[in-house]
Design goal:
It is built from ten helices and four strands. The chain is 69% helix and 8% strand. With 357 residues, it is α+β, with helices and mostly antiparallel strands.
């Protein structure tokens, strides 16, 4: 019993040291993150102002020229502005500290923002696709010169806005969602400029609708990507580029590790992967040393700094000291419980040496 208490105190002390160290790193990283977030917000605000000013003028010219391409660009720019505004709100919410029942804070507000941006791209592309097909069948008159001049100005404005957005942290799915809105709008203006030139010099008015369909294709591509990536985070799939089986094989190859099961890898939000696992160590092995080595590998090789590892000796569930004072039936029940736990592991069981996945 004394040995059990000593082990408990040692684990508690070790946890305290690791806990303090992690917070020390977190404080420095948190300061850097706050500075980066402020810079991101400034770049987003710059892009937002550029887009709103130009969008107002484009709406007027689009109706005057009867150009669906310009009107569709203006509508897309409205969603651009909304996407940037939504991203700014999400960044503010995600920066709030965790409290109450929200133990991770509101970090996934940014993922909600990215998913909303993806959905709006898909909805808008469906509407514009319908209108473009209708205009292919019955094309209205289009003033090519107005379309061309406005589109060329739009290219300049969107290049500036895209440049501003590119300066922000695009590894954040939230920022990437807003960036994709602006980038597809830039492509749309290029297509519109080409359509305006075709209408002006050849009189082929269907070029306007064809340009709109090109925009629709780009919007669909960006929208599907955002919805897919945000859904992966909400469904707690492993981050792209991290293979859980490969990670488990790497960890189970660590000295003294016999088995790994209940391995889960997910993302709390963009660029914040987390991992939990149950580790079984060979009898007599140093659980604390194994835990530290596994955390080091996860941090250095996979950039996973949020790892929760339950480390036990093989056959330890039910603690030897307790089994000595238990009845034979209680001991059998404890052994059965331990066996059922391992048999009911969530996901594959990884053991040292060759094994199938």
């Amino acid at each position: 019993m004394a040995e059990h208490e000593h082990a408990h105190e040692h684990a508690h002390d070790d946890h305290d040291r690791d806990h303090d160290h992690d917070h020390g790193r977190g404080g420095h990283a948190g300061h850097s993150h706050a500075v980066a977030a402020d810079a991101d917000r400034r770049w987003l605000w710059s892009a937002l102002i550029l887009l709103v000013v130009f969008m107002a003028g484009e709406v007027v010219v689009g109706f005057a020229a009867q150009s669906l391409a310009l009107i569709s660009d203006a509508a897309h720019m409205l969603t651009d502005a909304a996407s940037i505004a939504l991203a700014l709100v999400a960044m503010r919410l995600a920066a709030r500290p965790a409290r109450g029942g929200y133990t991770f804070g509101l970090k996934r507000a940014e993922i909600l923002s990215a998913q909303a941006n993806g959905v709006t791209l898909l909805v808008l592309s469906a509407w514009l696709g319908y209108e473009a097909v209708a205009r292919l069948i019955s094309p209205p008159a289009v003033t090519g010169s107005l379309v061309l001049v406005t589109a060329l100005v739009g290219v300049v404005v969107n290049v500036a806005a895209t440049w501003c957005m590119s300066k922000a942290n695009r590894s954040s799915l939230n920022v990437e969602g807003a960036f994709q809105h602006v980038l597809t709008d830039l492509y749309a203006f290029i297509a519109t400029a080409v359509a305006g030139a075709v209408v002006l010099f050849t009189g082929f008015v269907r070029a306007d609708a064809i340009a709109s369909l090109v925009v629709v294709a780009l919007m669909l591509r960006a929208g599907i990507g955002l919805v897919r990536d945000s859904a992966r985070i909400f469904l707690e799939a492993a981050p792209a580029g991290i293979d859980p089986d490969q990670v488990a094989d790497r960890l189970v190859a660590t000295d003294q590790v016999e088995e790994i099961h209940d391995l889960h890898i997910w993302e709390i939000t963009s660029n914040q992967p987390a991992l939990s696992a149950h580790i079984l160590v060979a009898p007599g092995g140093d659980c604390h040393a194994v835990q530290r080595e596994l955390q080091r590998r996860l941090r250095e090789e996979y950039r996973i700094t949020h790892a929760t590892l339950q480390v036990d000796h093989v056959g330890e569930s039910g603690a030897d000291g307790l089994l000595q004072i238990s009845s034979s039936s209680a001991a059998a029940a404890a052994e059965q419980e331990a066996r059922e736990h391992c048999e009911d592991a969530h996901g594959p069981v990884h053991r040292s040496g060759p094994h199938p996945h």
